[in-house]
């Protein structure tokens, strides 16, 4: 089938779907300049992420592990949401129902959601909505973050969460209990938080359509989420530059960059 026929078919699936879930991966942030782990730009002092983003690295040499996250935060500070993030944010805000799930830890979906909600809060938006605050207005487009977010810290001891701060001479400590902080992300070898995974599965099981964007679909359990939609009788649209293990299960596979395909598909 031609690319334009595939796009037309995919647009019909989107229009006809009641509930929609989207699962995104590192590919959606590639056009924002966020390095994937496999890029040379993802390397720092010749360490592999698998050596630094582990509980063992934080136990053995927390300074070096923290310096890597501090560097990643500085790289991210120079990145912004791209048309792919923005199309998804507009789409879910317009439907008023949440359905965005991401494996990314870069916080770009959250930024796009807040920006889209702020853009919609024109003069005609209600006072109640404005009073509820930006996060409430953006709620439908805020992602379930399967692997956490680099832009937050979490206490190793009491689990309290804090916005990230630049790394100083001393390792960052918890404001409430004094325990060591760590980035609020799932490290290699750790399991995903049960309630976060349950929320993602519940969205997928109830969806008529799952949109999978920019993921190689090899990291489990995230890669199994689209299968929950399929098993419940829903359809699957894949947006990627290339084939993945999910492609043969896809109802429609759209080949192209997320920043171009998603606005065409969703707007
Ligand atoms: P991945 O790197 O394994 O795969 C990226 C996929 O995106 C590939 O299939 C590639 O073909 C596709 N792709 C690349 N550019 C694209 C574009 N412009 N448009 C559409 N598709 C594009 O990513 P993954 O599947 O998310 O798994 C990587 C793991 O590493 C995840 O668990 C994630 O938490 C972590 N990670 C996150 C980030 C981030 O937060 N941005 C970056 C690197 C790694
Ligand atoms: Zn604490």
Q: What brief labels describe this structure?
A:
267 residues, alpha/beta, six-stranded parallel beta sheet, three-stranded antiparallel beta sheet, 9 strands, 41% helix, globular, binds nicotinamide-adenine-dinucleotide, binds zinc ion
Strand order of the largest sheet: 3-2-1-7-8-9
How would you state the average pLDDT, rounded? 92
Structural class, please?
alpha/beta
Task: Give Rg in angstroms.
Answer: 19 Å
The counted number of beta strands is: 9
Order of helices and strands: HEHHHHHEHHHEEEEHEHEEH
Short recap of the structure:
This protein is of the alpha/beta class. The chain is built from twelve helices and nine strands. The longest helix has 16 residues, at 62-77.
Characterization of this structure:
The protein is α/β, with parallel strands linked by helices. It is 41% helix and 15% strand. It is built from twelve helices and nine strands. The protein has helices spanning 3-16, 27-30, 49-52, 55-60, 62-77, 83-95, 108-120, 127-132, 134-137, 194-206, 225-231, 258-266, and strands at residues 20-24, 100-102, 144-145, 148-155, 161-163, 181-185, 209-213, 235-240, 252-255. It has a six-stranded parallel beta sheet, with helices on both faces. It has a three-stranded antiparallel beta sheet with strand order 5-4-6, with helices on one face. Strand 7 (209-213), helix 11 (225-231) and strand 8 form a beta-alpha-beta unit. Helix 6 (83-95) packs across helix 7 (108-120). The radius of gyration is 19 Å and the shape is globular. The model has no long low-confidence stretch (mean pLDDT 92). Bound molecules: nicotinamide-adenine-dinucleotide and zinc ion. Nicotinamide-adenine-dinucleotide binds at residues 25-27, 29-31, 34, 36-38, 103-106, 147, 214-216, 219, 239-242, 244, 257-258.
